[in-house]
């Protein structure tokens, strides 16, 4: 599975799921992470597409065929109306995404390795977004991103990284 196929399969379905999910809007409102939910839904999406997806094989979030995927949900400290303010720096969240890139680089038994992350709240044109991407991409990756919106209007980004 190449990156374009992964995005084509995941992005439309995940965008709708997040936009329509009443419970997730509460997570966005208080900046709570929801990686477990994301893992369950992605396994379901891959299974429905005919892949035999498995969670937590050898410490990797999702695997199938020769594909390994690590997931992150990362909150930011950007101030957004209707979202609880928290002053925690985003540095750890960015470092955790980078750590997943390094982790997958060590896995030679998978031909296709990806990191998928959702970062929230992030308004579509917020200047800090490019800084966040620069930090992530500084480890020699390119991140393809798409906008998302939670049911309560909280803006987010989903990022897809092909690990080489």
Return residue spans where pLDDT drops below 50 for at least 5 consecutive residues.
none
Number of discrete helical segments:
5
The figure for the number of domains is 1
Structural class category: alpha+beta
**What can be said about the biggest beta sheet?**
6 strands, mixed
N-to-C CA distance = 14 Å
Q: Which strand order spans the largest sheet, edge to edge or round the barrel?
A: 1-2-3-4-6-5
Strand fraction: 25-35%
Output the keywords.
6-stranded mixed β-sheet; single chain; 5 helices; 164 residues; alpha+beta
Can I get a quick summary?
By secondary structure, the chain is an alpha+beta fold. The protein has helices at residues 3-20, 22-29, 35-48, 91-105, 127-137; strands spanning 54-57, 60-64, 67-75, 112-120, 143-149, 155-163.
Annotate the secondary structure layout.
Elements: H1 3-20, H2 22-29, H3 35-48, E1 54-57, E2 60-64, E3 67-75, H4 91-105, E4 112-120, H5 127-137, E5 143-149, E6 155-163
Parallel strand pairs: 3-4
Antiparallel strand pairs: 1-2, 2-3, 4-6, 5-6
Description of the molecule:
This protein has 164 residues and is an alpha+beta fold. It has one domain (3-163). It is 40% helix and 26% strand. The chain is built from five helices and six strands. Strand 1 (54-57) and strand 2 (60-64) form a beta hairpin. Helix 1 crosses helix 3 (35-48). The radius of gyration is 15 Å and the shape is globular. The two termini are 14 Å apart.
